[in-house]
Design brief:
Elements lengths: L2 E5 L11 H10 L4 E5 L8 H15 L2 E5 L10 H21 L1 E6 L11 H22 L18 E5 L10 H10 L3 E6 H7 L7 H15 L3 E6 L1 E5 L2 E6 L9 H10 L4 E6 L5 H99 L5 H31 L5 H24 L1
Parallel strand pairs: 1-10, 2-3, 3-4, 4-5, 5-6, 6-7, 7-10
Antiparallel strand pairs: 8-9
Helix pairs in contact: 2-3, 3-4, 4-5, 7-8, 8-9, 9-10, 9-11, 10-11
C-alpha cells in the first residue's frame, strides 16, 4: 500500500523560499511528494526555478505535482473561458518543465448552463482538449536533452478537483462522470471539500471506505490523488482551511482505513492545511500509529492462537492416553476370557474321553460276567451271589464316576456349548449302561 505524503508548497520551516530548497527540506522530513502552487499566473522568471526542481526530482525519484490557477470559469462566457484557457496553458508548460506527475484544475461556477448533463458534456469536451495539449507537449522529441523525464512518453495526468461550495461545479459524482468519459484525466479528491459539501459526511473509516469504493467502481482505478486539511464549513459550503486538529474532519479514520483495508490503494495525499508540512507530518504519524496498533493486534492474536493450540494439543494427548489405556485394559480382559474359553474347551474334550473309557470298561465287565455265568451254570448259589454283588459294586462305582464328570462339563458350558451337549448325551448313555447291567442280572 504505497502512501505518499507532502505539503502544498514550500514548507514553512524551510529557510529558503525556492522550490529546490523546499524539496530538500521535504526529503529530510521523510516525506515523499510536493505540490507546487501557481495560484494566479506563471511568470516567465519562474521557469528556471521549475527546471532546477524538475532535474532534482528526477534524480531523487521525488514526486512533483502542480496546482493550476485557483480562479477559473470554464463554464462562463467566451472571454472568461479564454482567460481560463491561457492560465491553464501556462500551468501545463510549467508542469512539463517541473516534471510534474499531476496537475490540479478547477472548473468554476455553473454559470448560465446550470447543473446537469449539458454542463458535464461541456466540461468533458474542454478537458479532452487539455489532455491532447499535454500529449503534444510531452511528445516534443527535440526537448529531450533538456527534459530527460519526457523520454518515457507518459504525460502528466490532468486532475479535476472536487469543489467545496454548492454554486461551484465539481461534486464528486460530476467529477467522476467526466473522468469516466475522458481518458488521461483523474479525480482530485479533496476530502475537506467533500466533507463540507456533504454537511460533514466523512466521520468514520467506513465513510472513507465507501468513498474510495465508489471511485474505484466508477472509473476502475486503484491510484488516487487526494488533498486533505481541516475545514470550517457551514450549510454545505466550505469557508476556509484550518489545521487538522481544529476541525471536525479528523485524519484518524482515513488512516485506519488505509492501514486496515487499503492494501489495494496507491495514494498520494497533499496537505492543504495552513500548517503545510506540520500537518503532513501529523498525517504520517497517524498512519504509523495505526500500523503499530495493527501489528500489536496481530501479534496478540497470534499468541492467543498459539496458547489455544497448545492447550488443545495437551487435551488431545491426554484423551489419546486415556483411550490407549482403556484399549490396553480391554485387550488384557479379552485375552483372559479367550484363555479361559480355550481351557474350558480342552477340559470338556478330556471329560468326553474319560466318559468313553468308562463306558468301554463297563461293557467289557458285563460281557465277562455273562460268559462266566454260562460256563458255571452248575456252580453254587453262593458264588453267583458273590459275583452279583461284586458286579453291582463295580457298576455303582462306574455310575459315580460318570455322575461327577458331567459336572465339570457343565462348568465349561458358557464357552463350549457343543462339548457340554456331548457330555449330557454321554451321561444318558452311562445311565442306560447301568440299566443294561441290571438286565444282565
Amino acid at each position: 500500500m504505497p502512501v505518499r505524503l507532502g505539503p502544498a508548497g514550500v514548507p514553512l520551516s524551510c529557510k529558503g523560499r525556492t522550490i529546490v530548497e523546499g524539496i530538500d527540506d521535504i526529503i529530510a522530513l521523510g516525506l515523499d511528494t510536493m505540490e507546487v502552487q501557481t495560484v494566479r499566473l506563471v511568470a516567465p522568471n519562474h521557469f528556471d526555478q521549475f527546471w532546477q526542481a524538475g532535474v532534482l526530482a528526477n534524480k531523487a525519484n521525488f514526486e512533483m505535482n502542480i496546482h493550476g490557477p485557483y480562479y477559473a470559469e470554464l463554464l462562463g462566457n467566451s472571454s472568461q473561458r479564454a482567460r481560463s484557457f491561457a492560465k491553464m496553458e501556462s500551468a501545463l508548460q510549467a508542469g512539463k518543465v517541473l516534471n510534474a506527475r499531476h496537475i490540479t484544475c478547477h472548473v468554476g461556477h455553473y454559470g448560465e448552463t446550470g447543473r446537469g448533463k449539458e454542463a458535464n458534456e461541456q466540461i468533458a469536451n474542454i478537458f479532452a482538449g487539455v489532455v491532447d495539449r499535454a500529449n503534444q507537449l510531452w511528445g516534443d522529441g527535440e526537448e529531450y536533452p533538456a527534459f530527460p523525464w519526457l523520454e518515457d512518453g507518459t504525460p502528466m495526468k490532468i486532475g479535476i478537483e472536487t469543489s467545496g461550495r454548492q454554486e461551484l461545479w465539481g461534486s464528486l459524482e460530476e467529477v467522476l462522470e467526466v473522468v469516466n468519459h475522458v481518458e488521461g484525466t483523474i479525480p482530485v479528491i479533496n476530502m475537506a471539500h467533500i466533507h463540507a459539501r456533504g454537511h460533514g459526511r466523512l466521520k468514520t473509516s467506513e465513510d472513507y471506505g465507501e468513498l474510495f469504493d465508489l471511485v474505484r467502481e466508477t472509473i476502475g482505478t486503484k491510484t488516487f490523488y487526494c488533498h486533505f486539511s481541516g475545514i470550517e464549513h457551514r450549510s454545505g459550503n466550505a469557508l476556509h482551511y484550518t489545521q487538522i486538529k481544529k476541525s471536525d474532519l479528523n485524519f484518524d479514520p482515513i488512516a485506519e482505513f488505509l492501514v486496515e483495508d487499503g492494501e489495494w490503494l496507491d495514494v498520494t495525499i497533499i496537505s492543504d492545511s495552513p500548517l503545510l508540512e506540520h500537518d503532513a507530518m501529523f498525517m504520517y504519524q497517524s498512519i504509523e500509529k495505526c500500523r503499530h496498533r495493527q501489528l500489536e493486534r496481530k501479534a496478540r492474536d497470534e499468541r492467543q492462537k498459539n496458547v489455544v493450540s497448545h492447550a488443545g494439543m495437551e487435551k488431545s494427548g491426554a484423551e489419546n492416553d486415556e483411550n490407549a489405556d482403556s484399549d490396553a485394559e480391554m485387550s488384557e480382559q479379552e485375552k483372559t476370557e479367550l484363555i479361559a474359553a480355550e481351557d474350558a474347551v480342552v477340559q470338556a474334550e478330556k471329560d468326553g474321553a474319560v466318559n468313553e473309557e468308562t463306558e468301554g470298561e463297563a461293557e467289557t465287565e458285563g460281557e465277562a460276567e455273562s460268559e462266566g455265568g454260562s460256563e458255571s451254570e452248575g456252580g453254587s448259589e453262593s458264588e453267583a451271589e458273590a459275583e452279583s454283588a461284586s458286579s453291582d459294586e463295580q457298576a455303582k462305582e462306574a455310575t459315580k464316576k460318570t455322575q461327577k464328570k458331567p459336572t465339570k462339563a457343565k462348568k465349561a458350558k458358557a464357552s463350549a456349548t457343543t462339548d457340554s451337549t456331548t457330555g449330557t448325551d454321554d451321561e444318558d448313555d452311562l445311565f442306560n449302561s447301568e440299566n443294561d447291567d441290571d438286565d444282565l442280572f
